[in-house]
Amino acid sequence: MKTLVLGLGNPILTDDGVGIHVVRRAAARCAADHISFAEACVGGLRLLELLVGYQRVLLVDAIQTAGGEPGTIFRLQPHQLQQSLHSGSSHDLTLAGALTLGRSLGLPLPDDDHLTILAVEVEDVLTFGEECTPPVRAAISSVVDEICAELAAQSEAQAW
Question: Which residue segment(s) compose the domain that 44 sits in?
Answer without folding.
Answer: 3-159
